[in-house]
Specification:
This protein is mostly helical. The protein has a two-stranded antiparallel sheet with strand order 1-2. Helix 3 packs across helix 4, helix 11 packs across helix 12 and helix 11 packs parallel to helix 18. The longest helix is centred in the first third of the chain and has 28 residues. It is globular and about 60 Å long. It starts with 7 loop residues before the first helix and ends with a helix. Keywords: Cell membrane, Membrane, Transmembrane, Transmembrane helix, Transport.
């Protein structure tokens, strides 16, 4: 039986949604900010503005009208897909090029939202499963480096970092083994908090950034300077946002099933358009590209609460948190080793989700095996050996040297190549293969 909460229960359930997605929401700004060597003050701002724009984006998606909002109880957060491309763009073109690319890509999604319902057929399970798997595999090295203490840490690989990171990992696994329901959904957040407490007890946590942070701060447009619009970063981010749209489509469909709501193409278009607007806002306020968080779908199914007012309450809580830099600064004191223990689980779950999608693929078809094999090989190869593309012009290098983008493009184009070639060359002689082609094309 579905539950319709009232009064204080709405806010408590909204807080539950915030807690379920909080760890994932703060990880992206922390990983990107540290990789780009931002100061503690800049990192605190990045976390705060990320929480604020998460709240605004969620509110927009819940506010269903003629043009915006899918009208489902969805939570939006910063996408893991964008981590390595943002770091790559930042290192090669600078911080402002990241935000120019995010704004341009968000406008692309917003303006072409109506076409994504048609384009989405180019992303069958063989493509989406491969893309999600490559995303997870490309992110795992970042998690492992953090487990050792962070790439530039003087204590990289120390016994202390090893024990901290594996302690967090062990706690997360123990909670998932012996607890169920909401407690299990908070396992990553509990692991991060417990690991940070232990790190504080052994002198590995510095709270100076928290004491220096203000209690209230209004968001500021272009905090890090005016955005720069450069073609290679923009193309890279558009591809990233296409992948985000594919991810969100799966979440929309899953949540529609949970809520017994049959989604129309118009519903999907409003959902895509809202995500495009959220991505533009992320670029304007120096935040991130946003997508619909899958972990909150499980919480909706678990709680049986399917009303949007709970999501509005959760969005309001995120907005308030984003206006208080001192709370955001608490996230910046988390040691890299603690983050590493948690991110290995999260990034590994991304890989597992991709593998689960691939179980829907007919691997008796040789073309599907080739799509997956080549795409994963090229995606991981580009992550591990980016020097492969050193001889290319810089505009191309920024696109193909990122494993996520290389793997995604490979999966999309190889799927089109095999399916279109089969349709074009032998449509009359192999009628039995027409239906599988439609399913995978």
């Amino acid at each position: 039986m579905d539950i319709k909460p009232t009064g204080g229960k709405i806010w408590s359930l909204g807080l539950q949604h915030v807690l379920a997605m909080y760890a994932g929401a703060i990880l992206v700004p922390l990983l990107v900010g540290r990789a780009l060597n931002l100061t503690a003050e800049q990192l605190s701002y990045l976390v705060a503005i990320d929480l604020l724009t998460c709240g605004i984006a969620t509110m927009l998606q819940a506010w269903k009208n003629k043009y915006l909002g899918i009208g489902l109880p969805v939570m939006l957060g910063s996408s893991f897909v964008a981590i390595t491309p943002m770091i790559g763009i930042g290192n090669q073109y600078g911080l402002n090029a990241i935000y120019g690319a995010i704004i341009a890509a968000g406008l692309f999604v917003f303006l072409f939202a109506g076409f994504f319902g048609k384009i989405i057929r180019l992303f069958p399970p063989v493509v989406t499963g491969t893309v999600v798997t490559v995303i997870g595999l490309s992110l795992i090295p970042t998690g492992i480096r953090n487990m050792a203490g962070g790439a530039n840490s003087p204590e990289f690989g120390s016994l202390t970092n090893f024990l901290l990171s594996f302690g967090v990992l062990a706690l997360i696994l123990i909670i998932n083994r012996f607890f169920t329901g909401f407690m299990r959904s908070l396992s990553v957040l509990i692991g991060i908090v417990a690991g940070t407490v232990v790190a504080f007890m052994i002198g590995k946590v510095n709270f100076s950034s928290v004491s220096e942070a203000s209690w209230f701060h209004l968001p500021q447009l272009f905090m890090f300077g005016m955005p720069e619009f450069k073609i290679a970063p923009i193309l890279t981010m558009i591809i990233v946002c296409m992948v985000i749209v594919v991810e969100s489509t799966g979440v929309f469909l899953a949540l529609g099933k949970v809520c017994d709501q049959k989604l129309t193409p118009q519903d999907m278009t409003r959902g895509y358009r809202t995500e495009g607007l959220a991505i533009v806002l992320g670029g304007m306020f120096n935040a991130f590209p946003y997508n619909t968080f899958a972990q909150n779908v499980g919480l909706v199914e678990l709680s049986r609460v399917k009303t949007r007012n709970v999501i509005v309450a959760a969005a309001s809580i995120l907005i308030v948190l984003g206006l208080v830099p001192k709370i955001a600064a608490l996230a910046t004191v988390i040691p890299a080793a603690v983050l590493g223990g948690a991110t290995v689980v999260l990034f590994g779950m991304v890989v597992a989700s991709g593998i689960r999608m691939l179980t829907e693929v007919d691997f008796k078809e040789q073309r599907n095996l080739l799509v997956v094999a080549c795409s994963i090989s090229l995606g991981i190869g580009a992550t591990v050996v980016p020097e492969l593309f050193a001889g290319l012009p810089s505009a191309l290098r920024i696109i193909v040297s990122d494993g996520t983008i290389t793997g995604s493009l490979s999966a999309i184009f190889l799927n089109l190549f095999f399916n279109l070639s089969l349709k074009w060359k032998r449509p009359a002689t192999i009628p039995a293969q027409v239906e599988p082609i439609k399913q995978h094309g």
